[in-house]
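To close the section, here is one more complete example, presented without commentary so you can practise reading it yourself. The ligand is uridine-5'-diphosphate.
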Amino acid sequence: MISLVIPVYNEESLVDLLFERTIASLSTITEDFEIICVDDGSSDNTLSKLLSCYKKDKRFKVLVLSRNFGHQAAYTAGLTYAKGEYVAMMDGDLQDPPEVIKSMYEKLLNEDYDIVYGKRITRKEGIAKKTLIKIFHWLFKNFSNIDKADNVGNFSMMNNRALQALLSIGEKNRYLPGLRFFVGYNQGFVEYDRLERDSGEAKMSFNKLVKLAFDAIFSFSDLPIKFCLFTGVIGIIIFFSAGVYVLLDKFFGSALYGWSSTVLSIYFLGSVQLVFLGIIGEYVHRIYKEVQNRPLFIVREFVN
Ligand code: UDP
Ligand code: MG
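Output:
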């Protein structure tokens, strides 16, 4: 059996097409499948549309969260309920073509992989978003010790042992593509073109995307803490040189210590300290979240 997990949040305009295309493309693999649509606290007609799809085909199940928890939590919720031997993850906006799942499945079977993820060759998104995403992927690839993580997102399929490993990770600030690499086993990829979303606006707001990027960078790399160290070392070198100059001036020159240099160094030291405090604060915040140990999601009901 194959499970397909899809998070949806206020996507009423594309539920019907999503239903048709996922059913059609999974049917080309097997008739024994389930689609778990996770309604991530939608406030429009998404839920009622999902439920009428369920009435048409009982394999189209609906997992309703009690509020909007964000798409990483929604994916995790869906994965927790998935019963399939092979489980796929796909966004609900049809930017990732469901037809690619078949090639993922064939690759899993024929080439003995545990996880097959989609690698985007091209993407059709606004220039600003595309540039930011490029910068993020460059940072993540170069500083996360995951060199394969290049233009890879949630779109993927895995077998049950990889899924169980993924679900055993209790991390709260989740970046699933990173955690999926962390799981290990045999991982392969298929290439595909990321399309424009079929309809509606992107539901990952700018703030949500920034949070996701932060989760990825802070959870998978020591870049921020290295940045502290780097800035600190540069600062020390600058102030050591300045100190030498000040002493030489005191003993051999006409030492008249200027107001501007004093103020400038206070400003500089102050800002360096603020940067450090901010970064340390970020870690403390994350430790706090882990210690709180709140559930990642709360299910209202599972219609199946
Ligand atoms: N999504 C969700 N909860 C959210 C935000 C988004 O379940 O809080 C869903 C959304 O409906 C879509 C998928 O996650 O199916 C990806 O969202 P979006 O297309 O906005 O992300 P992007 O394409 O910008 O990565
Ligand atoms: Mg999208």
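Once you have examined the tokens, check your reading against these statements. The pocket of magnesium ion (ligand 2) is lined by residues 91, 93, 95, 197, 202 (CB under 6 Å). The chain has ten helices and eight strands.
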